[in-house]
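Meet the record:
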Amino acid sequence: MLSNLNNRQLEAVSNTEGPMLILAGAGSGKTRVLTTKIAYLIDELGVDSGSILAITFTNKAAQEMKERVQKLLNRPIDSMWIGTFHSIAVRILRINAEKIGYTNNFTIYDRDDQRSLLKEIYSEINLSDKVIKYSTAIANISKAKTEGVSPENYWEVYGDDFMNRKIADIYELYEKKKKEYNSFDFDDLIIKAIELLNCDDDTLSYFQRKFKYVFVDEYQDTNKSQYEMVKLFSGYHENVCVVGDGDQSIYGWRGADISNILDFEEDFPGAKVVLLEENYRSTSGILDAANKVIKNNEQRKDKNLWTSRTGGQKPIYKEVNSEDGEARAVVEWIDHLVYNGEKLSEMAILYRTNAQSRQFEEALVHAQIPYVVVGGLKFYERKEIKDLLAYLRIIVNPMDDISLKRIINEPKRGIGAAGLGKLEDAALNNSMSIVQYIMTNGSEVILGGKAASGLLEFKKIISKSIELLDEKSLSEAVHEIVNLTGIPGDLKNEGTVESRTRLENIESFVSSIASYQAENPDADLEDYLASVSLMSDVDKTDAAMSGINLMTIHAAKGLEYKTIFLTGVEEGLFPSKFSIDEDNVEEERRLFYVALTRAKDNLYLTSTTIRRSFGQIIPSKKSRFVEELGDSIEEVENILRNKYSGSVVETYKETGEDVNWDKNYLKYDIESRRENLKKATKEEYVMGEKVKHKKFGIGTIINVNKKDDNTSELMISFENMGIKKLRSDLAPLERVK
């Protein structure tokens, strides 16, 4: 059991008594240490598995931990308490809820239940959700609970203004009604479990004596209430072992408190600290870069990752001139790596915000490279984007009732299912589409009341949008139409992290139209919508299909890939503008460190000199994090040229093909090129030989220029396309017999 552990890991496993902090660097085998230590207690020291509590952050992690311990022991451990903070809290509350005034059959409210309860509250206090969105109230109440702020002192903590006074009132009623309905929301579970343990000495004593050993994984991600829960459980035996890495604390925005891990030795006197610094994942070149940048953080416990995997190339950095250029650069790298035998499934493109995925999705689709969006929807499948596309579609096509039904009440205009039914019946009776009927004079009368004024507002949006398309350029018109819909304003008023992300997606959407217009100056809205529809059709990937992975850096935590492309490393994007404004750059630097340490063998970084924001071209500069990396990275002027003979960029120039990324890039696939290389090495081309090219047709080789890398530059006269220079190892050529 212990034979495969290094000295530091063995030290962490074999020291079982008293508080312990295992500072586990990225890729240092922390899960192996944690599961081995639990198995060691049970198998070697005879500890009853029922006296062990292990807490994780996800159900998946809890299940994996249980399976690994059982595999080490070769027997089940059903009596062991293992689960998330919330699942452990629910288990305790189910047994003891009556001690804090609830019955054991309490309900746990999800987001829809919370909204329903808020509707009831808003009705009682005569408040419109247009003043304070339900989602805004939910987010603020959740934040208050995470930070331990009660309804009574809410406005004192967050500010004495109209908004906070109202939320305090809502919060107070919300808590009162949940108690009446014998219900908890998700945030309540830990809070109420702590309340129970603090108010009932018998319950506290029972669980403190029961759990002789307490383990916590990812301790750097704990918040205030989770810390308190750990402190209570371990208060009697004081055998608490937490595993984490302060350098990977990246969830401050959702309440995680890095001071929990930084202050562990003060909170648990006599604690032993074990550093796991040997990394089993990355090359020394990648770790050198990661160590160099994270040392700039002041809020950290010092450690230095190292590996026996010496060598490996330095991370490669490339500055390009636009988002489209950035996507092209990444696709070129991908193409080269696959050509040399790398698998797409072992690569990942990482970005700071979901909105950045669009440029890469489009480039990959055009390059015919399959991809999978991990932990999120593909760009054009996101709700806010589909809503805006629906608006644009009904402007172009007034017969499109499907798109109309999607957005007639988005944002809310008081037009419910009943009102829509009336409009549909009236349209049918008049042999019109619903859109056509709505645009007739007086159509709003059929609804009456609030719905009538909502429909009148909708008609004005459509009419004004049509005018804008006649008066302005495509990108300018769409920018104004997007604002006219009310969707961005609605999201701004919501004021949540989720709404901020959706606004970033809308910004990227508007910018994509500006890019499209720049490439297609004569195109109109109908052309643009057709191009998006075609992309969406191609883009529908089977769930089981493998390809390169696209994800945010937050979604990448805990994962690893042979090759990582870290994109958008620019000031204001990474670190984000919000973190700079709020003086929270250290968490952004930890996020950067997490991104770097996902890579095993290859790490590529990109930034742009300009980036579009709502269609406007904005200058950008490389991130301070790139500057901090210094000479631990290799900056390339031309992609792959400094690293490999015959760069991909040069190759495309030599093929004679028109490198128009939106239409002609990668007309033949990677496997074809690999086969061509095999053919070229088996038998050299000669002058006078007939060949067939997939695009140019039949041609005759009129010159062969051998290169130093055992390939040849061929000059070929094609029957219908003239003379082209092609690389023998990459061009899609077939011999004509």
Observations:
- Residues 39 and 203 are 28 Å apart (CA to CA).
- The chain is about 45% helix and 15% strand.
